[in-house]
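Record passed on here:
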Amino acid sequence: MDEIKMYGSGKVWIPASKIDEAKQIGLLQYFRTTRPDDIKRVGSEYCLKSHESLRLALNGMWNWFSRGIGGKNALDYLMKAEDYSFQDAVMTVLGENSSIKRSSANETKQTEVPYEVPKEKILQIPERDDNNDKAIAYLVNRGIDRDVISFFIDRGDIYQTKDYKNVCFIGRDEYGTPKLANLRGTVGDFKGMATGSDRRFGFGYITEKKGIHIFEAPIDLLSFATLIKSNGYDFTRFSFLSLSGVNAAQKNISDSKVPPCLMRTLELYPDITKVYVHFDNDDTGLSAAMAVKAVLHDKEVNIQPPPKGFKDVNEYLCNLGRIVENTMDR
């Protein structure tokens, strides 16, 4: 019997037979094992009580109509809906049905696939500095309004790190627990993320309004909030979300994925019906915006890149400082 083998180096080898076994497990079968209390019958099909637009067939196939995705088995679901890697999905689907044997590397067969066992993500939040002087100065120099800066500092979502005096932007879950930390150097061009950051969460602010404005980076989010304020509106009445970067659309645009941060937010706030996309004015940003519009069939998606000649919202803010009022949803 082929076995999944775990080596002392922390790697796992998955036999081809185990991959074939995982492909045979349908999503309904998988959910009957992992989420039996969340399944509900609808005619000849099934759905999840928590996501009624996710329909499950007896043959293992599934279709999530509100997200415009579907597949043949549980592997497809984990990769498309949960953003798992292929190897993670195989290990998860097989679960306790797999026999895992520790052995030495010289026992590896050519048909086996090497896989590094993922470690649990634990966010290592940079220590806060005694003040935010350098962070504030940096953001003000980028054209961000002081009231906007103070709003997010008071929420604890922006602060200055003690070690390198970076600006830290915190993304939280629905319980207020930090899950992501974007870092921006106050000197030089440093950009990064704290170890353990989870891209399913993003820096932002959500109200009870039906529209949400999404951005590639926190600086653009703050820039847009500044533009709203400069036009005489209360920026705290708007919803904003930074996605910590985006990916270009797939060759077949309908196969593209909505960034997990955005999808998770839309699931948490089902009343949001409008999405305003303010990605960068480059090939990747424009392609990613088109992908969001193509995949979010049940939402009104408005693509609003910076005006021609400006790379992003912050560059527009620094050069013009104005924005057309019809780009805003109150």
Q: What stands out?
A: The two ends are 61 Å apart (CA to CA). The longest helix spans residues 218-230. Residues 31 and 39 are 7 Å apart (CA to CA). The chain has a mean pLDDT of 82.
